[in-house]
Amino acid sequence: MSLRIRIVVAIVLALVLGSGLGLALAGWHARQWLRGELVSAQASADLAVRRDFEGLSRSAAPARDLADLVGTFDGDRHLQALLIGPGGRILAASIPEPASAPPAWFAALLRQKIAPARLPSPAAGVAVELRPVDANDMAVVWSEFLDLALALPLACLAGAGLVWLVVGRALRPLAAVGAVLPRIGAGDYDARAPERGPPELVRLGRGVNEMAGRLSAMRARNQALEEQILTLQDEERADIARDLHDEIGPHLFAANIDAAMAESLIAGGRTEAALDQVRSVQGAIGHIQRLVRDILARLRPTTLAELGLAAAVRDLVQFWRARHPEIAFSVRLCADGGLPQGAEEAAYRLAQESLSNAVRHGAPSAISLTLERTHEALRIEVVDDGVGAAPRGAGFGLKGMGERVAAAGGELAAGPCDDGGWRVSATLPLGRRDRAA
Amino acid sequence: MKVLVVDDHAIVRDGLARLLAADGAHQILQAAAGREALALARAQRPELIVLDLNLPGLGGLELLRRLARLTDARILVLSMHAEPLYARRALEAGAAGYVSKNASPAELMAAVRKVAAGGRFVEAEIAQAIALGGGAENLDVLSPRELEIMRLLAGGASLAEIAGALGVGYKTVANTLTLMKSKLGVARTADLVRLAIETGVS
Ligand SMILES: Nc1ncnc2c1ncn2[C@@H]1O[C@H](COP(=O)(O)OP(=O)(O)OP(=O)(O)O)[C@@H](O)[C@H]1O
Ligand SMILES: [Mg+2]
């Protein structure tokens, strides 16, 4: 059963119960009133009859006077007077006011036992009896009951209708929220719940909307990251393609030409002259080998997997030292083996990017690299004494470092130092292998 | 015969020079970039120019156009690219021959002789691909959906926006892009955008 119907049914039940109670109370009051009416009418009639009896002793025709006395009660609303002769014979009777009788069940509910009063008259053998007549009062109560019986259901009905409307209005936002949630569940994060209605539902709607907003922001962020990764992949592929294309291609071409010429020279018997070509083929191949090694090193830090982090980082420093002899490199490595692979990879990539940034952007005279292992974290720091300054380019290096460290659950600080130069410092937790790996 | 060799790699120039000398060219000029090549072509009037397309600065195609306008030398393009698209463009820009650096030295020399003698020469493999309809400047190789993605790309839409516009997943668009890049022989999404704008799909 819907919440709305439940509420309305409960309220209607309460109304019906209340009405029933009211009716019962009214019935009890009616009985009291009826009894009061009849008893007081009987009492006053009693007085009047007794007063008449006093005059009767002086009367010339007491029998006629008694009949007259009974006649004075014609048309009375509450009682009937009867003249009872010897042996209980009814000599005369008054005619009370006629009344339409209520249904028998109703009369039975209200009827009260009030004994008729019998007054013996001074004239011997005759008595006047006063019988209560409740038909008139019953008719009055019945008509009042009919009014009530019509008004109460009408009031209940009106109340129920009102409650139905109010509850429906109040719950409408709830239905809307209920319709929005499955859409959000299905990935439509632009769906919004109404923030209307009673405060509880406003709060509910607001909560749902905040959730949807956060989900939508999260998805946007994920997509941006994915796009960034794709761009990075693109760039990386393009880089490798360029290297293969622009560097290896020409050398292969030259080697091919020289080999062909050597072939024709040897075929022509000029072996001495062919030596030159062969040497130049060898030169080209040596060059190609170097290029292939460089490309492979970029694709995968082989030394890292084979020799461990420390050796790989030393290798990296050696690479830059050879290209920039004017820079003083100082390296401090206090990380023995046995690190989780993910942490090693992250640390290596951090060192790689930081060193290349320092050399490319900082024009430093000294770079120091520290790799340190405490028992639950790996700390890596690269400091240069170059130009420092705020980041200008929109490269991927710093972003990539940030994401790598975040994925490993670590912390990264990268930026210019107060006294010039640039500092990158990262802490990678070692306990959380699951995320670092 | 006077030959001008234009290539940014010394090793290629030297190899070519040796090859040409062995084949009887009596004077071989070398240039590493566009400006140098234009100056030499104007001053020395070579009969044959062997030109690389992948040059720093001016760019091979533009240099080719200028050389063709400036001199009446025969021009043989010697490029890393074996895609028919490049060959067509080079021929349209005024080259008399097109050979990729993957061709054998024998085929290269055949090309040199043919072009020097006033003929036209396109490396067999590439010529075949062109005959089969490759290298047309339209994007016939793309499916309608891929063309639609091209159009959106050229309009500056991001991947997420394209996915939204086509009502498909983000991953699907990314995968389709990779496929399109390999179909069209370009390396990056940026190249796709450039191609889309050049060919006017937008
Ligand atoms: N050691 C440094 N000294 C001075 N400036 C730096 C240093 N490291 C980074 N920067 C500044 O921060 C910017 C962003 O660096 P980031 O590594 O993200 O990009 P990039 O090096 O320009 O490009 P990419 O790393 O993608 O090749 C750089 O362009 C530079 O301005
Ligand atoms: Mg960088």
Question: How would you characterize this protein structure?
Answer:
The complex is a heterodimer of chains A (437) and B (202). By secondary structure, chain A is α+β, with helices and mostly antiparallel strands. Chain A is built from eleven helices and nine strands. Chain A has helices at residues 3-56, 62-71, 104-110, 135-185, 199-267, 271-299, 302-307, 309-323, 341-362, 397-407, 433-436; strands spanning 79-84, 90-93, 117-120, 127-132, 328-334, 366-373, 377-384, 411-416, 422-429. Chain B has ten helices and six strands; from the N terminus they run βαβαβαβαβαβααααα. Chain B has helices at residues 10-22, 34-44, 60-70, 84-92, 105-116, 124-131, 144-154, 159-166, 170-184, 189-198, and strands at residues 2-6, 27-31, 48-51, 74-79, 97-100, 121-122. Chain B has two domains: 2-131, Response regulator (Rossmann fold), CATH 3.40.50; 139-198, Orthogonal Bundle (Arc Repressor Mutant, subunit A), CATH 1.10.10.10. By secondary structure, chain B is α/β, with parallel strands linked by helices. In chain B, α7 (144-154) packs across α10. Classes of the chains: A alpha+beta (437), B alpha/beta (202). At the A-B interface, α5 and α6 of A face α1, α5 and α9 of B. Bound molecules: adenosine-5'-triphosphate and magnesium ion. Magnesium ion is lined by residues 353, 356-357, 395, 397 of chain A.
